[in-house]
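The data are set out underneath:

___
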Amino acid sequence: MRRASREQDTLPWRFAADLGSSFDITIGPSGTVETPKPRPTGTWLHVASTISADGGVRLYLSGKPAGAKTINPINVDPNAHTTIGCKLGGNYFEGVIDEVRIYRRILTDDEIAQLAR
């Protein structure tokens, strides 16, 4: 990932849920990828995302692709705070977040499907 070059571009990445609508991942000021709306409620879901060096961002729900977009350039300050389950302004995810994992490589579709089982 490329280091941000201007102060206003030094935002973190976040992985969050809009209240009752979708899951999304936002990569600093560069862009957002969302799952289809409405998102399932009242049931356990496995949520995953991959981010590639060329700007490819993919979201998965319960092991199946649910959203994709190319975000280029990816400008994220590596020293900025990262949030999982909260958007700026304090919109917190209402539910349980369990077994958070961050990998140093991109998982394949098959690996994500296996983790969702």
